[in-house]
């Protein structure tokens, strides 16, 4: 009869040898996920203990398929982080600002708690406890840490280094109740007065005025745009000739680490590109 090939992820009969020091070696052939059959062995004081150690080794090989990366379940978490950031850079689908934010968050929020662990040691309970402890300090920090930790461990799952993402089973973060805080007309006029006083050169503190701050604040009040969006407004985005004057918000001003401030013409989402129309002539509140 012809020899029957093992199915991928299975092993053959277990054999035993006695080493010169008297310990028992259990051996079996295992067909890995690349199709190659390899001899796997483990040692124990008795046949039973050697067989248990061998089956534990084989169970690990069944759970974790080899991937194209150098990562394994026993790789340190910092190795995964380096590989994850490199993978994002190769994809080139995130803005440089977002990539820098992810890198900062995982280095400052996550790495202190997971830097000394291997991937195998990161489970649901550990991740859940970490997020709850961080949420006691700051809900926003816990939320940002959850995002980057889920993405990094998700890469390990996609590359078949881990069988599942422990972040999929952690408890939800509950945002503490808060009351929106808006400026009153009196507060807005107080800000305008302070700006006018500073731009008139009567303030002895702060940088020298350049005449732009007042216009920037008025544009933010009139359009509800963020300061980065207001700073990115160009002359061609302003229409004052039509019956209803309008301003188109089409980009934002960004400052990358170590680089000069530039204008990013593409917004984060399609909703960020919008037109703000004036219903009346500008008036003081």
Automatic annotation (TrEMBL):
SUPFAM superfamilies according to UniProt: DNA breaking-rejoining enzymes
Polar residues: bias regions: 244-264
Composition-biased stretches (Basic residues): 269-285
Statement: the UniProt record of this protein carries the keyword DNA-binding: yes
Alphabetized Pfam families for the sequence: Phage_int_SAM_3 (PF14659)
Region feature (Disordered): 244-285
Swiss-Prot/TrEMBL keywords: DNA recombination, DNA-binding
PROSITE patterns on file: CB
Domain Core-binding (CB): 75-157
InterPro entries: CB, DNA_brk_join_enz, Integrase-like_cat_sf, Integrase_recombinase_N, Integrase_SAM-like_N
Record's protein name: Core-binding (CB) domain-containing protein
Organism: Agromyces soli
Organism ancestry: Bacteria, Bacillati, Actinomycetota, Actinomycetes, Micrococcales
């Amino acid at each position: 009869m012809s020899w029957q090939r093992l199915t991928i992820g299975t092993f053959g009969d277990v054999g035993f040898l006695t080493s010169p020091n008297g310990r028992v070696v259990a051996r079996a052939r295992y067909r890995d996920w690349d199709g190659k059959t390899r001899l796997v062995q483990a040692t124990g004081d008795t046949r039973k203990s050697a067989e248990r150690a061998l089956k534990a080794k084989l169970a690990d090989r069944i759970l974790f398929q080899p991937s194209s990366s150098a990562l394994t379940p026993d790789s340190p978490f910092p190795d995964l982080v380096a590989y994850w950031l490199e993978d994002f850079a190769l994809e080139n689908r995130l803005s440089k600002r977002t990539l820098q934010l992810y890198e900062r968050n995982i280095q400052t929020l996550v790495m202190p708690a997971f830097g000394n662990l291997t991937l195998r040691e990161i489970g649901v309970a550990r991740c859940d406890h970490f997020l709850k402890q961080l949420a006691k300090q700051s809900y926003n920090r816990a939320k940002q840490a959850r995002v980057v930790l889920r993405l990094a461990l998700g890469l390990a799952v996609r590359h078949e280094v881990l069988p599942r993402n422990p972040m999929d089973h952690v408890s939800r973060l509950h945002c503490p109740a808060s009351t929106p805080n808006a400026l009153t007309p009196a507060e807005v006029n107080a800000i305008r007065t302070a700006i006018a006083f500073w731009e008139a050169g009567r303030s002895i503190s702060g940088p020298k005025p350049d005449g732009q701050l007042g216009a920037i604040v008025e544009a933010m009040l009139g359009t509800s745009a963020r300061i980065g969006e207001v700073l990115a407004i160009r002359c061609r985005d302003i229409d004052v000739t039509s019956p209803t004057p309008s301003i188109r918000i089409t980009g934002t001003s960004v400052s990358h680490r170590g680089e000069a401030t530039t204008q990013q013409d593409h917004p984060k989402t399609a909703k960020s590109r919008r037109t703000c129309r004036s219903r009346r002539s500008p008036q003081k509140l």
